[in-house]
Amino acid sequence: MADPETFALIHVAGQPCNHFDAVISGTREGLQALAETIARALDAGEATVVDAFASDGEGYDLTVKLLSEDEFQKEKPPYIDDEINTAVAYWRERAFESEAKNYRLKKGIAT
C-alpha cells in the first residue's frame, strides 16, 4: 500500500444550485496533484485524470477536461440538488410574475 502522505487527498463539493459556492479542498499533496493534472490537460489539450481519495479513504478518478467555449456552453450546469433547483426556479418565476404585475399596476397597464 502506498504511503498515505503521497495520496491525492481531495474533496470536490459541487454547487447544490446556482449562486451557491463550489469548493475544492485538499492536502498540499492533493492540491499539487490536481494542479499538475490541470497543467497536463492544458498541455495535452485533452482530459487528464488524477487518482484522488476522500477523507473516508474511498478512491475516485478526478477528471480534468479542457473544453472549447462551444463545448463548455453545451455542458449541463453542474448543480447537484434537483429539488433545490426546482424550488429556486419556482420561486424565481413567482417573484418575476409578482414584479411584473406590480409594474403593470404602477404604469396603469391592463392585464
Can you give a write-up of this model?
The structure is a single chain. This protein has 111 residues and is of the alpha+beta class. The protein folds into two domains: 71 residues, no CATH class; 31 residues. The chain is built from three helices and four strands. Strands 2-1-3-4 form a four-stranded mixed sheet. The protein is elongated and about 70 Å long. The N and C termini lie far apart (71 Å). The relative contact order is 0.15.
Count of individual beta strands: 4
Poorly predicted residue ranges: none
Strand order of the largest sheet: 2-1-3-4
Structural class: alpha+beta
Question: Rg to the nearest angstrom?
Answer: 21 Å
Largest sheet: number of strands, sense, barrel closure: 4 strands, mixed
Number of domains: 2
Residue share in helix: 40-55%
Outline type: elongated
DSSP helix count? 3
How many angstroms separate the termini? Answer: 71 Å
Strand content: 15-25%
Order of helices and strands: EEHEEHH
| Mean pLDDT metric | 84
